[in-house]
Amino acid sequence: MHLDAFDRAIIRSLQEDARMPVAQVAERAALSPTPVSRRIKRLEDDGLILGYQPVLDARRLGFELDAYVLINLDGHSDENISRFEQAIQDNAYVIACHAVTGDMDYLVHVIARDVEHLSQITLKSLVRIPGVRDVKSIIVLETIKDARALPLE
C-alpha cells in the first residue's frame, strides 16, 4: 500500500493519540478536516488501520509480572497444533502468542499478578495442554522500550 506524506502524518497523529479530534489531526497533516476524514476512512477500509483500543496499565490492574514462556510441542500434527492454539486463545493471561523459528515452537507473552500466579498459570494451565513437551519461562525485570507506534518509512 502506498502512503503519501499526508497519510503518514495522519497515521503518526493517530498512533500518538487515537482519540485526537479530526480537526487536530487535520492541522498536523496540513489538510482540512474533510479530506482527513476521507483518508482515515480509506485507511480503515483498506485494512491498514485495524481498530482502536485503549492502552491499559497492567500494573494498575494488579499484573505486576510480565513474562515470556517458550513452548515446544511433542509433535506437530494438525490436532496437536489446533488443541494448543485453542487453549492459548482461551487463556486470558496470555496476551500474545507467536509461532517462532529456532529451538522452540511458540513464544507466549503472559501477564501475572506475581511469581506465584505465574507458576499457577504455567503449571496448572500451559504445561497441562495436551501435546506440550517443554516449557521455559523468562521473567521481565525491566522494560527498556515498549513502542506501539510502527515506523512509517
TrEMBL record:
Domain of life of the organism encoding this protein: Bacteria
Name of the protein: Lrp/AsnC family transcriptional regulator
Keywords, comma-separated and alphabetical: DNA-binding, Transcription, Transcription regulation
Keyword Transcription regulation applies: yes
Alphabetized InterPro entries for the sequence: ArsR-like_HTH (IPR011991), AsnC-type_HTH_dom (IPR000485), Dimeric_a/b-barrel (IPR011008), Tscrpt_reg_AsnC-like (IPR019888), Tscrpt_reg_AsnC/Lrp_C (IPR019887), WH-like_DNA-bd_sf (IPR036388), WH_DNA-bd_sf (IPR036390)
Coiled coil: none
Domain HTH asnC-type, residue spans: 3-64
Keyword DNA-binding: yes
